[in-house]
Amino acid sequence: MKLAVYGPQKRLGLVTGDLVVDLQKAGAAYLTSQGERHADEESEASLGHDLTSFVQRGEKAVKAARQVLKFAKDEPDALHGGRGQKLAFQLSLAKLRAPVTESSKFKIMCIGANFADHFVGLSRNSPASMGKERKVLTLEEARAQALATPQWGFYKMGSSVSNPGDDVQYPSRTRLLDYEGEVALIIGRRGKDIRRSELLDHVFGYTLFDDFSLRDNMDKGVMNFARVKNFEGSGALGPLVTLKDEAPDPQDIDFSTSVNGEVRQRGNTKDMIRGFGEWVEFLSEDVELNPGDVIASGTCAGTAADSSKRDRDGNFLSGRFLKPGDVVEVSSKRLGGTLRNRIVEKRS
Asked: Taking the alpha carbons of 159, 162, 166, 172 in that order, is the dihedral positive or negative?
């Protein structure tokens, strides 16, 4: 089952074919067809009306949504409200939103150096490796080196999230804006000190993520309040949420990234150095993970930072980095949909 958040009120919709169906209102239509006199209230109680309330209701809400999805497929003409309002919309025409509703109440946890090929590219591309004694790591060496290093990453602020289709303003403090296509796991069940073997008990579903990054200071290892990872629009999420029943193995989800139609990245979560289970265990130690929290997979090779050339002084040549007018797309056959954002000049 696939879901989408859409419209100015951030309603939660079921995705069926090329349509998005208002879940709560379609649930009311279904209950009315079953003779329920208080259908609207009962539908709200069982399904909620936005993603947060739906996730919080747990498996009972998912079960109810499956009934509504079958109803929507079997009785498409019945998809109207009590006053005849339209409940199904063309997915291609709907204004899709990031699958979050309260940006101040959820965490985006981003994993660093979690794909060996990306790690190899960054190592090969560092100024320290540009001399005559340069040694390029193999994938096996990169994996071993990463596993010997403590886990690291960063939080991205919910207020930094971009919607699918949003323009992302080019930050004034960079000349090296990069893209990082990723798979994002959405937590569905509250938990703390979660064992990796319990991962799937806490997963709601998956979506796509683009971790826009500023690379100007990457060689210095300066995070500085993670400012290189947090600026307006710096984390795009969406466009669809695929529930875990359609992607039962979190370590087998494909993704790709293109810039202006040129495919730059092709990856799969099976190549994560540390899998989602290990990260959930690490990130939940003494910290409660809540429904709607996001854990991003990390990215594979093909970013501008791991594939760009440098000049004699070790400075990046900017040709593969993003510039105003560029369109970045992150896609997945398994998850469906394409997360598309355009880079624009910063507004004054």
From this structure: positive
The domain segmentation of the chain, as residue ranges, is 2-97, 103-344
Encode pLDDT of 71-119 as tens digits: 999 988 877 655 556 899 999 999 999 998 676 678 999 999 999 999 8
Closest CA to 243 of 17, 62, 61, 53: 62
Question: Domain 2-97, what fold?
Answer: SH3 type barrels. (2.30.30)
Non-local (6+) Cβ contacts of 188 within 8 A are 55, 58, 202, 203, 204, 205, 244, 291
The pLDDT-based confidence of 348 (bands split at 50, 70, 90) is: confident
User: Do the domains 2-97 and 103-344 sit in the same CATH topology, yes or no?
Assistant: no
Q: What is the pLDDT of residues 264-304, one digit of tens each?
A: 999 999 999 999 999 999 999 999 999 999 999 999 999 99
Q: CATH homologous superfamily of domain 103-344?
A: Fumarylacetoacetase-like, C-terminal domain (3.90.850.10)
Encode burial over 133-153: b for 16+ CB neighbours within 10 A, e otherwise: eeeebeeeebbebbeeeebeb
